[in-house]
Design brief:
The chain is α+β, with helices and mostly antiparallel strands and 125 residues long. It contains three helices and five strands, in the order αββββαβα. It has helices spanning 9-28, 82-87, 109-119; strands spanning 40-43, 50-56, 63-69, 76-81, 98-99.
Length: 125
Amino acid sequence: MARQVMILDSQRAELLANWKRGCELAAADRDAEHDPRPVVKLFNPCGAATWLLTELVEDNPDVAFGLCDLGHGCPELGYVSLSELAELRLFGGALYIERDEHFTASKTISEYAAEARRLRRIEVC
């Protein structure tokens, strides 16, 4: 079985567009709200870790921004290295971090973050 691509090219383009939009808003008006919906959900298939990603840093597209939950009850907004996630070997090396192929965001990242802080985990239905 072929290993799944972590982020599709179309998702990568959308993540970069979100980054650029945030930079444009910040340059135009410091009070402007940048609150995109997550584009990609990554998860540990044999654990509780989940990442809802909204943006890729334009100057370093290995770095993504989003809601990160390592399964310890403290989900937080922050940055993550995609190459580090891709290198993780799980369950004796047989599994990898996966992309949820069926994920479609129903809320903005701040709404997911508020709910995750309240529940102490990311919950996506």
